[in-house]
Amino acid sequence: MNPSVQITRPRPGVALITLSRPERLNAIDPQMNDTMAQTLIELERDDQVRCIVITGAGDRAFCAGADIPTLLPYLETHIRQGCDDPQLGGVTHRTLTTKPLIAAINGLAMGGGMEIALACDLRIASTQARMGLPEINLGVLAGAGGCTRLPRTVPAALAAEMILTGQPINAQRCLEAGLVSRVVEPAALLDTVFDLAQTIAARAPKALRACTALLRRPRFEELNDALAQERQAFADLLLTQDAQEGIRAFTEKRQPVYRDA
User: Which entry of 115, 185, 221, 230 is annotated as an active-site residue?
Assistant: First the structure.
């Protein structure tokens, strides 16, 4: 197992997936992306697991999204070869597990990190959490469900502000907008989420699967066309000169100079 993805069993019926690249704010590189998907497949096969929690290692970030210098060039190569897979973290475009997913957002959830959280069934945040879709700053868009799911989760005006400016919002505003269901102090986050996960895990298995499937239907089956259109827009943008400039500027820690009209 890739050490950047860790699995523990903190409570009966509960599995915890920890994204563990704290030195990179738990950003997702290609190997980590594949490992997350494989981890969910393995937990789906485990009858002892009834509910899955996803969190980030350390106290700074849930997940800062894509590891820009590695994942975006990887995606660009696959787009040029005609074999792009929009799935991120094993959760954004296909359901690899029938078990409820809870995002324990312990810090920054940016870009792909926010998209992973949006694809989860429940989201609980610490007071230190901040969530945003900064992809426009790189000359691209949130192409793993962000531009599709966010306007269906929070008020349209707030979604537009977040997507068009790339600026994040804090935990309290996330709560007010309905983006998360609870905000708790950082020290209480995991125990709060584990209590909730254990309560869910104790419910009747067939009823739990049925309820979870119905809750997910608007986020997956009913959004298929919109998600596909979003991904095509992302793919088109990633191949532009502006996107290449945005990625270079990010890597070089400078302001990008965009030229495409």
Answer: 115
